[in-house]
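User: I'm new to structure prediction. If I give you an amino acid sequence, what do you actually give back? Let's try with this one:
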Amino acid sequence: MPTLTRPAAVATASPARRTSPRRTGRRGARKGLLFALPFLLGFVATYVVPICYAFSQSLHEKRSSGLGFGPTRVVFTGFANFASILGDSAFWSSVLRTLLFGTAQLTVMLGLSLLLALLLDGVAARAVRFFRAALLIPYVVPAVVSTVMWLFLYSPTGSPLLDLAHRAGTDLDFFGGVNTYLSLGNLLTWQGVGFNMILISAALQALPRELYEAARLDGAREWRIAWSVKVPNITGILVLTGMFSLIGRLQLFAEPLLMRQIAPESINTDFTPMMEIYDKAFRTGDYQYAAAESLVLAVITGVLAFVFYRVTNRKMS
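Assistant: Good question. You get back a string of structure tokens that encode the predicted 3D arrangement of the chain. For your 317 residues, that looks like this:
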């Protein structure tokens, strides 16, 4: 009797499950969004929400009922505050004053930063680290502390600089007229020259050394290498530092506010746009008008930074 053999089981391998590139991309995007979520929440909480709140406040205005003796109430006025800013001579004078002062001060500060970075580029590595740390100290010191320190040096009663000047038979006045701008510019240059020098020096260190060797073989001296080889290859960082510094000057506030305590006749309440906004918000109490001014200043800063970036990039390219 024939034995019945059981047919061998045919192993059928199931095809490997393939994930489409689109699904993989979506999964990666979701993971990336989860990683970026803390930053996005912080950005919305610290930037988007305050800007929206300031815009909402700028569309309102405080008005008194009756003949001005009744309680004040906040009413919706649309873009009336922005229309008033267009004719506000104090605000636009502060913007123009800050731009003219910032242009002169930034030219000196960035010029010194570039010069120091070029000098350090030819120094030994150990010396470079020491000088970088030493020149960065003024930037690390808080603005209020450094301003108070320089106010002591500018003080007409206890300044050691004035004491030395009197002993030499000369009179110095750090405030009044153009001296006010020179004193403030000296303080801001002392604060920012080290930080900008660090950025420019890092850009110089990233340049290939073969460029310098080729220039030396062609007979170029060090000053020629610095001007014709190094500077043209770091135009990007020069534009970046200039743009950041310009934005910082339009936001100038703490230094002139503290200097006003010594020289109120030279630095008024609308010396800079930020001081004008601060005065409107906390001395006058017109928060709605101050919110409109802050938004206008933000737009001016963004437009000027964009124009500065495009113009300088076009000239240096």
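You can read the tokens as a compact description of the fold. Here is one thing that stands out. The first strand starts at residue 60 and ends at 64.
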